[in-house]
Fold:
Amino acid sequence: RVKEEGKNHFQFFTSEMNELVSRKSTIAMSIRKGLKLGEFTVHYQPQIDIETENIIGVEALVRWHHPKLGSISPAEFIPIAEENGMIIHIGEFVLRTACQQNKDWQDSGMAPFRVAVNISAKQFSQGNIATVVTSALEDAGLAPHFLELELTESIIQGATSAISKMQELKTMGIHLSIDDFGTGYSSLSYLKLFPVDTLKIDQHFTRNIHNDPKDAALVATIIQMAHNLELNVIAEGVETLEQLAFLKNKRCNQAQGYYFQKPLLPEKIEELYMNT
Ligand code: C2E
Ligand code: MG
Ligand code: MG
Ligand code: MG
Structure:
């Protein structure tokens, strides 16, 4: 009996593993087709100036509705797309969509703001990022200073010639930010070397401002450091008024999170604009 149970247990485990493997390979294999069939869309989450409470920008976040698997989180498919190289195509799709959308908003008379696009490691190190960005901006007719690229610490540290690529983008007039700031293991000296405009405090720290005094101290320190380095600082994952009050008190420049808005369809951004 014991033997049999052991055997069943083993089989259960392997079938679960198989399921995971097949979900992963299904995802990997459906990206190209999904892009062609329009299954990918882009949502936009407002970024708010804490002092004025105006929308100063939006972050573009990709969404995928798979015909069989339903909605798949970017947290699941982006790493898979990084592995098989499809991130280059997803990334270009998001970049082009976001630039065009922002230009359309401006043409419709909305007060201009920046759109921030996440750039993954492979996109930054392999593709000729400056060429892709230039082409996306030109095709959309969007001025470069209305585009921001969100890079992570690991990208900046990992890519050879990262500094010259960043310099090239900066020279074009594009804004650069460091996403998930504080979660990497890199040395702070890169802040001196790399031409960035904005630090985005990772949502893990924001979430714990009122649960963990050490996280609160880290948030306050990051804001202070950003100001000392003359960098802009934004907190992501702001969900409560208490978190916002803390950030305001520490003179954090901007905030983004469910307390204000979730990532929204473009039409909802327009509605929001009309009603504020
Ligand atoms: P991220 O760039 O750090 O984006 C922030 C994530 O936090 C988004 O998740 C957003 O929906 C979520 N979020 C925003 N406010 C709140 C809040 O108040 N509370 C909580 N709990 N979450 C909040 P999402 O859209 O699922 O994206 C997850 C990650 O996937 C992103 O993290 C980014 O690393 C990646 N990603 C998303 N879109 C793209 C893309 O177009 N290209 C690339 N390369 N990566 C992307
Ligand atoms: Mg981001
Ligand atoms: Mg982030
Ligand atoms: Mg992230």
User: Anything to note?
Assistant: Confidence is low (pLDDT under 50) at residues 1-6. The longest strand covers residues 55-66. The chain has twelve helices and nine strands. Residues 45, 61-62, 73-75, 78, 91, 94, 118-120, 150, 179-180, 203, 236-239, 257-258, 263 surround C2E (ligand 1) (CB under 6 Å).
